[in-house]
Amino acid sequence: MASGRQHLFLNGSIPRALFNLAVPIVLANILQAGYQLTDAFWVGRLGAAAVAAVSISMPVTFLVIAMGAGLSVAGATLTAQYMGAGRHDMVNHVAAQTLLMITVTSIILAALGVLLSPYLLTLLGVTPQVYDGALGFMRVSFIGVIFVFIFAMFQSLMRGVGQTRIPLFIVLGTVILNFALDPLLIFGYGSFPAFGVKGAALATLATQSIAAVIGLWVFLRGQHGIHLAWSGFKPDFAYIKKAFFLGFPCSVELSTRGLGLMLMTFLIASFGTLTLAAYGIGANVLQVITIPAMGLSMAVSTLVGQNIGAGNIQRAARITHLGTLYGFGALTLVGMLAYLIAPQIVAFFVPNDADVIREGAHFIRIMCLAWGGIGIQLTIVSAFRASGNMMNAMVIALISQWMIQFPLAYILSNHTALGADGLWWSFPITNILIAIISIAWFARGGWKQTRITEQDKQALEVIDKGWSDEGYR
């Protein structure tokens, strides 16, 4: 079965390979979003202070997760390339060492988070009514980061070898369990105590720890493409150095995107409650429509990585071209549909507020016709990562958030007659410009020259070559 899958990835129909990989990833991503939806559903019944406690904590824990996510991407990239090259020994070595790195990193970040939580909440200006709930939720969430990291690493490594169904089944089971645990831990039952808003974090901690343990068990059994032994966890500092320098730009990229979103929220909040509510709904819609695009981009990443590892550079390029067309076409069609039913979409979230429905629909209609640009960007960035050119993805994120969108939103909203509309127009303009930049950069072809799995290359040489090839020097 594994050999048949590898033949499909390296020699078979590209559309079929993309479909086989993307569908389980998309379903897993949708289910993963169920954690947030479940927490929001039950916590919302505790009142505004509880909702605020979760809202203030989530961006902070997201940034911490983003800091370690680069190691996960580096491990998945190396795994895919070694799998394509037929180096199963190195696939197992990379998996063990990356799991070791991610576990140590997550323990350090979790400990710092637990210790610094009170200071972070004070810095964020949390009100006394929200403070206690936010502190409990944040501290438990930081402890949970350890298991979130481990399971995310499991998903990335399994995706690297082309196995996407096992993570899907694990996510399905844990989401169902989380839905059952949330009301029990939040509200209590009989003699079982109620933990309030902290209960939502405890439920996620419990389910994510189970997922992490199952993932490790799957690796130790070795029946799904990766076979680990406890001896493989002995530190290999040469690999750790390589993976750190490879993954660091990706961590910067994801952190940059998180900070950029937070800054945009502050800017939008200055225009009042109506504008902020419209943005909140539009942002939720945007998050939903990017789920299939993210699934497609992850499938592209796996196929590009494996084909580069096998030396099939031109096939890797064709995979990216086809994935880009699919991403652009699918999100453009979704955008056209969203334009037609924008008021109904907003009314699903806020059925009884005509002003929010009007403004939210206006925001969606301004940005939705450029959603195809998101599909282009996500696909090309995933190909850059799969080839080992993490810096390209990092620079694209920096340009997108800090050189285009935020400055554009500020200037158009504060220094033109557009007002709040200037905020909305920054979204489609950014998507179009970044899509053009991504296409032009990919067409240069420098990504084809980076071979991170060659044994005679050291991490710093890979990074240095990436800078030189892409014209930074």
UniProtKB/TrEMBL annotation:
Pfam families: MatE. InterPro entries: MATE_fam, MdtK-like, Membrane_Transporter-Flippase. The keyword Transport applies. Keywords: Cell membrane, Membrane, Transmembrane, Transmembrane helix, Transport. GO terms for molecular function: antiporter activity; xenobiotic transmembrane transporter activity. It is found in: Cell inner membrane. It is a multi-pass membrane protein. The chain crosses the membrane at residues 17-35, 47-78, 99-121, 133-154, 166-187, 199-220, 259-279, 285-304, 325-350, 362-381, 393-412, 424-443. GO terms for cellular component: plasma membrane. It comes from the Bacteria. PANTHER family: MULTIDRUG RESISTANCE PROTEIN NORM-RELATED, MULTIDRUG RESISTANCE PROTEIN YPNP-RELATED. NCBIfam families: matE. This is MATE family efflux transporter.
